[in-house]
Structure to design on (309 residues):
């Protein structure tokens, strides 16, 4: 799957992944009104709004991006109806030929991790009847329980051509409270040590284009750490959050890419899906044209990223 992702980045000339992280206040009024009238003031109205919103955006951007990244928490908070929206969003994105990164950030060990793995990137066996449930191509994981929290996913990655993005240096402002702690007498920080572990874990899962299917989440908001991690993990593909709304600029991404502009995919969520609410796009796009505003935001991001990569 890492080879597929790289090929789609090359075809679209765009290392952008659109984060499908809807909130109810992102949804245009005409969609909210229809869903509230139909389903009342219920979680189902919100979930149906999310699905309609996501589909409209996917319809406008699927031909100019390689991937989308739905954040499961936005859907999970709504219960079963929200998870149905999550599953349908993934199915629709895949119908349009997009790679799907399920942002689930799971972390557990043994049979619990195996169950997460089977549900999200593997198969569930019910008395010999085999079912694929969520159908993500990649998922995000937290590795801070150690290798036995990651190992249960490896089999399904190999068997079903899936991939992982493992948290190494996250984009939130306080990540350094834990991730920058020095853990060796030589002055190696925890995020550096974790980067070396992710590299080691991924060495056995190399694709034909020179990158491992075991990737790393590396926040754009920490430029110097990103440069250091690229030197530690030259053949690890980066999923890079923090661009745009969290404060990182394109110039902060230089160290994430290789000499030919590959090696990373950059996430933007609200900067794209809620673009119609930004003054810069309101002069050209009405609320009814929210999806077209998202397309323009993708094109603008593509232009900026290609300038620096």
């Amino acid at each position: 799957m890492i080879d597929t992702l790289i090929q789609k980045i090359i075809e679209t000339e765009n290392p952008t992944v659109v984060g499908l992280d809807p909130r109810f206040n992102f949804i245009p009024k005409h969609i909210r009104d229809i869903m509230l009238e139909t389903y009342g003031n219920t979680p189902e109205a919100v979930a149906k709004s999310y699905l309609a919103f996501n589909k409209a955006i996917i319809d406008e951007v699927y031909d100019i991006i390689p991937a989308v990244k739905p954040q499961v928490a936005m859907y999970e908070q709504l219960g079963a109806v929200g998870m149905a929206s999550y599953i349908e969003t993934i199915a629709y994105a895949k119908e349009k030929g997009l790679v799907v990164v399920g942002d689930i950030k799971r972390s557990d060990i043994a049979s619990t991790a195996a169950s997460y793995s089977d549900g999200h990137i593997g198969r569930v066996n019910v008395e010999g009847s085999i079912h694929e449930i969520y159908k993500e191509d990649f998922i995000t994981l937290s590795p801070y329980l150690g290798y036995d929290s990651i190992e249960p996913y490896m089999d399904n990655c190999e068997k079903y051509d899936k991939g992982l993005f493992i948290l190494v240096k996250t984009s939130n402002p306080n990540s350094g409270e834990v991730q920058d702690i020095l853990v060796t007498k030589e002055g190696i920080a925890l995020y550096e040590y974790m980067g070396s572990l992710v590299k080691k874990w991924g060495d056995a899962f190399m694709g034909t284009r020179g990158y491992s299917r075991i990737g790393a989440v590396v926040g754009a908001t920490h430029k110097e750490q990103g440069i250091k991690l690229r030197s530690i993990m030259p053949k690890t593909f980066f999923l890079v959050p923090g661009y745009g709304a969290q404060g990182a600029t394109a110039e902060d991404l230089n160290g994430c890419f290789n000499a030919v502009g590959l090696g990373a995919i950059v996430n933007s969520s609200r900067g794209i899906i809620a673009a119609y609410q930004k003054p810069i796009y309101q002069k050209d796009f009405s609320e009814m044209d929210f999806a077209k505003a998202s397309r323009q935001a993708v094109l603008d991001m593509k232009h900026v990223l290609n300038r620096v990569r």
Notes: Residues 71 and 103 are 5 Å apart (CA to CA).
